[in-house]
Amino acid sequence: MSSDLSCLFNGQSLAVIGATTHPEKLGYQVLKNIIEGGYRGKIYAVNQKGGTVMGLSCYKSLSEIKETPELIVVIVPNKLVPGVIRDAGARGVKAAIVISGGFGESGNNELEQELMEAAKQYNVRIQGPNCQGLTYKPNFLCASWPLVTEAGHISVIAQSGTVGAEVGIRAQQERLGVSAIVSLGNKCDVNELDFLEYFAQDPNTHAIGLYLEGITNGKRFIEMVKNITLHKPVVTLKAGRTAQGRNAVASHTKSLAGKSEVFDGLCKQYGIINAKNITEFYDLLKGFAHIKPSKGKKVLIVTSSGGSGALATDEISEAGLDLVKLAPQVESIVKGSLAAHCVVKNPVDLTGDATAEMYEDIVLKAAQDDNIDTLLVIFGDPYSGVGEAMCRVKDQIKQNLIICYLGGDEVQVQETYIMHKKGIPVFNSPESAVRVIKELAEYGEYLWKNGCQGDWKYRKGEM
Amino acid sequence: MTFLSEPEAYELLKVSGISVMPYAFATNVEEAMKKAEEIGYPVVMKIVSPDIVHKSDAGGVMVGLEDDEQIKTAYQRIMENAERAVPGGKHQGVLITPMVKGGVETIIGLGTDPEFGKFIMFGLGGIFVELYKDVSFRMIPVTPNDARDLIDEVSGSALFKGYRGEKSINISPLVDLIVSCSRLLESHNEVLEMDLNPVIIREDGALILDARILTC
After folding, report:
1. What number of CA atoms fall less than 13 Å from residue A123's CA on the CB side?
2. Cis peptide preceding B114, ω within 30 of 0
3. Dihedral sign, CA of B24, B35, B56, B101?
4. At B196, which helix (H) or strand (E)?
5. Would you state the pLDDT for residue A2?
6. What does DSSP say about strands B104-113 and B191-202: parallel, antiparallel, or unpaired?
7. Most buried in the list A311, A329, B32, B109, measured by CB within 10 Å?
8. What residue of A is the nearest CA neighbor of B137?
9. Is residue A390 a contact partner of residue A419, using CB atoms and an 8 Å limit?
């Protein structure tokens, strides 16, 4: 019921139950992140002891608050949680993020049952319990940790709070940002499929990331995901690839992970992009949230670094992509613009003499070759001005533009910010860039096979 | 959970529209000789016993039998081997099938994933299948396009394209067989696992040489 979840994501007032002045406690951290995250709705702090927290005077209970908050964030000892939900439900609160742990995951099944019944009886939607909260940038909500302030287009549903947090941290550090991070916890009410359904229709989400251990309803997942991938990319990371990994999962959240080979096949069949580790998971989300699926496998590399160009070449051939020759007339145009010592093959090597202007000029000229599907541009030194240059280039070419920047230190960081601000993801290794190119090509092929090529509407005019 | 006997497995395949090799069940030597004559030499003889699932391991398979004399010897040895493997087991008789030569040996497997449900596996068969693990998976229902992807994904599928001067082999019968297996699974909930191994892919079609079906 995606409409039900709207109260979780878009609540215009909230109360933190268990707000505290102790900086080492979650009740402090979460309230702080809600305030510093710039939440625009009304914020209430609730603590039995009253007093003041971060400039907010604390209510001793929910019933003392005149207005009914739409959402509550619950960080109180486990035994108190069902009572909090009953009180809140009776007041008309529609949704609760229960961060408190100590339920089914530690053997307290009866307490979890009691919580579920309270939620059902009072019609309160519950995220958690035992979860790491919710970040949703369109509503300036960060009822979680870490604090993510950068708004972007990646939404992550994570069974492990840490995996979601790590994606948030990387996206924050790179100033690429996220749209949402949700941590599932024990899934006593809202599960991964509910969130998946929500993000599928959320216009701010351009790529959905799903970290899974066990899944609530595998068949329903398949039914949903095969429709979603026809219009929005879904990237998965699934633990339990090995028999030992499965044991770790079973003792972790007590859920059984399926066989990875079967899951790999399933992903290929239904257009899911499957990552093998956290780094790939983040890179693929970053790529898919900003770059459209490509029409084919033909790649041209433009580089200033022979070494990086060679590494990218290896990756491209191992990935089953094609390094294309430039069309003869385009090749002579490119040659005519470069000094004699530059190598105009694939890769096109601008050598250490390269400048931002040269990159812009050559990439635009090479893009006249319609045969190319993807231009991989590698910056291998601290080049200033390439960020702005690539932002201009991107609007003028039909091909996918993939940027790889390495060896550029502080300048690289600044130029990356410029490109990220314009929604051009920058990868800092050839292997990351090529992995994304490969998946974009395979996804494009999948869409084409399923009659969807060109029907890539959700991002039109948004980027 | 029970395994169907090989003749029962073939019956299930047949009613599901999957063509199987001629086969005959015999419970004594004379019958075995008669059936072998009908099927045409050379033939293969296999034990039929609910107590023996891994027939080769139990010495329950004899191949390349050319005449009555060899049928007689084979029948006795298979029955002795079966008795040695599972003393007092329900060794009902033998199955006679034609001897097939040439082609590419493949495996089609069907299984049930605890999370996502029933799936099909395809791979290059033979005794090293578990060593090389050159297999691919798709969930059912499998479309003809899925079946082609399933085949393409296996690195050994180069063999179908005429590897090192060998003639290329038409994979359409294999695609049809995979799709039919998917349909069988859809309409038979009781089938939990199934191994068609080997399935020989030759110019004249996809030939199922052995079937193991586990039902609930």
Report:
1. 9
2. no
3. negative
4. strand B191-202
5. 38
6. antiparallel
7. B32
8. A265
9. yes
Query: Which residues of chain A have a CB within 8 Å of the CB of B146?
Result: 269
**Other CB atoms closer than 10 Å to residue A388's CB: what's the count?**
15
- Is residue A213 helix, strand or coil? coil
| Cross-chain residue pair B115–A215, CB shorter than 8 Å | yes
Q: For an interface test with B, which of A262, A266, A446, A448 has the most B Cβ atoms less than 10 Å from its Cβ? A: A262
Q: Which among A218, A263, A268 has CB closest to B117? A: A218
Token reading at A96:
């609760």
Residue where the block lists tokens 């029962």: B8
Stretch (H or E) spanning A323: strand A322-323
CA-nearest of A64, A116, A7 to A17 is: A64
Which residue out of B112, B115, B148 would a mutagenesis test of the A interface target, given it has the greatest number of A Cβ atoms within 10 Å? B115
Q: Spell out, as residue ranges, where chain A has pLDDT lower than 70.
A: 1-3, 241-259, 453-463
Over the stretch A335-358, which tens digit does the pLDDT of each residue have?
Answer: 999 999 999 999 999 998 999 999
Distance CA A125, CA A4 (A): 7
Contact list, A219 vs chain B (CB under 8 Å)? 116-117
Q: Which of B111, B136, B139 sits opposite A222 (nearest CB)?
A: B139
What pLDDT was estimated at residue B164? 77
- Residues in B closer than 8 angstroms to A449, CB to CB, are 145
Smallest CA–CA distance, residue B138 to chain A, in Å, is 5
Q: What is the reported pLDDT for A256?
A: 31
Closest chain B C-alpha to A318 CA, distance in angstroms:
14
The reported pLDDT for the residue numbered A189 is: 95
- The two structure tokens encoding residue A156: 């992550």
Q: What is the pLDDT of residue A391?
A: 97
What is the Cβ-side half-sphere exposure of residue A332, based on CA atoms within 13 angstroms? 2
- Sheet of strand A133-136: strand arrangement: A141-144, A133-136, A178-183, A151-158, A207-212, A234-238, A273-275
Whether A243 and chain B come into contact, CB under 8 Å, resolves to: no
Residues of A in contact with B111 (CB under 8 A): 262
| CA–CA distance, A212 with B137 (Å, rounded to integer) | 20
What is chain B's pLDDT, residue by residue, as a tens digit (216 residues)?
Answer: 888 989 999 999 999 999 999 999 999 999 999 999 999 999 999 999 999 888 888 999 999 999 999 999 999 999 999 999 999 999 999 999 999 988 899 999 988 888 899 999 999 876 677 777 788 999 999 999 999 999 999 988 888 888 777 788 899 999 999 999 999 999 999 998 898 989 999 988 999 999 989 898
Q: Do A222 and B116 touch (CB under 8 A)?
A: yes
Nearest CA in chain A to B139: A266
Neighbours of A414 (CB within 10 A): 13
CA–CA separation, A249 and A368 (whole Å): 51
B163 DSSP assignment: G
Q: Do A269 and B146 touch (CB under 8 A)?
A: yes
Alpha-carbon distance of A28 to A16, in angstroms, equals: 10
pTM of the predicted model as reported, rounded to 2 decimal places? 0.91
Residue A222 Cα, gap to closest chain B Cα (Å): 8
